Amino acid sequence: MAEMEGTQTVAVIGMDGSEHSEYALKWYKENVHRPGNKVYIVYSPEYSSITNPASSVMTGNATHILRVVQEEEQRISALLSKLKEKVDSLQLEVSEIIRINGDPGHKIVKVAVEKHADVIVVGTRGIGKIRRTFLGSVSDYVIHHSHVPVLVCSHKDLH
Amino acid sequence: MAGKERKVLVSVDGSEHSMRAFDWYCENIHKPGDYCLALNVTEFSMHGLPGILSNPDAVVDEYKQIKQVTDKLMSDFADKMRQKGIKGSADTVPGGGSSPGEEIVKMAESNKVNLIVMGTRGLGKLRRTILGSVSDYVLHHANCPVVIVRPEQ
């Protein structure tokens, strides 16, 4: 067993609500996580770009805009609750769930640097409609820009 | 995964990058009971094609030399694993017709490994991309999780 003499690993896990990122979280917990590790989840709810409030701005209708933004926030709160449930069901102690908007790859690497991460964990693909390659654009970005080892959780049944 | 033996394939190419990847695996992932397959895929370059056609002995000699180096590399790895109490194997596979990436993926699949661990760059002088061509291939074709251990920045 590893000696626990204060060697605490910091893991940053990039998630977007997809099956792939849930698989990555589960795999990390079952295979890498050790009690005492600090885990940060960088959560980027993909759909937020689809219901972009900016489109409503064109109407100039303040009430409408407010409603759209509120609905968006409600939707994201619901997703965050679901994520917290998932984390609890895995019995994983997470230090912080950092919700981000836009540019997930860049933000994941940024958080990893800020938190002095020892490892970054990502799935292979997200929910996003653009699937150019098997290796998603986010995991691809992270691999090329990370300063620390990157665990890419690929699963044959999730291709 | 509880109760099932985990198998991890560590790609070894003699570079300090793959050594660092192996060390990282030992410190961060390895649990007692894990089976570690250290795999080296021998690549050997056929430089000077006209020369080869006229001097087959030189090719055989080069092959023997390379084999000596890789055999030593893998036996050193086997020693290192034994020292750390890691059960597993340390093998060399000739990368004849297929690329090292293909051999790694093939080995991973036939052994049903749970994880592949590799560095990004090998010994090769050809450094076309930040992500070496072998790790790039493996990332795109592996059916199991892959850890990419990048060089220290």
From TrEMBL, chain A:
<feature type="coiled-coil region">
    <location>
        <begin position="66"/>
        <end position="100"/>
    </location>
</feature>
<protein>
    <recommendedName>
        <fullName>UspA domain-containing protein</fullName>
    </recommendedName>
</protein>
<dbReference type="Pfam" id="PF00582">
    <property type="entry name" value="Usp"/>
</dbReference>
<keyword id="KW-0175">Coiled coil</keyword>
<dbReference type="InterPro" id="IPR014729">
    <property type="entry name" value="Rossmann-like_a/b/a_fold"/>
</dbReference>
<feature type="domain" description="UspA">
    <location>
        <begin position="12"/>
        <end position="153"/>
    </location>
</feature>
<dbReference type="InterPro" id="IPR006015">
    <property type="entry name" value="Universal_stress_UspA"/>
</dbReference>
<dbReference type="InterPro" id="IPR006016">
    <property type="entry name" value="UspA"/>
</dbReference>
TrEMBL record, chain B:
<dbReference type="InterPro" id="IPR006016">
    <property type="entry name" value="UspA"/>
</dbReference>
<dbReference type="InterPro" id="IPR006015">
    <property type="entry name" value="Universal_stress_UspA"/>
</dbReference>
<feature type="domain" description="UspA">
    <location>
        <begin position="6"/>
        <end position="150"/>
    </location>
</feature>
<dbReference type="InterPro" id="IPR014729">
    <property type="entry name" value="Rossmann-like_a/b/a_fold"/>
</dbReference>
<dbReference type="Pfam" id="PF00582">
    <property type="entry name" value="Usp"/>
</dbReference>
<protein>
    <recommendedName>
        <fullName>UspA domain-containing protein</fullName>
    </recommendedName>
</protein>
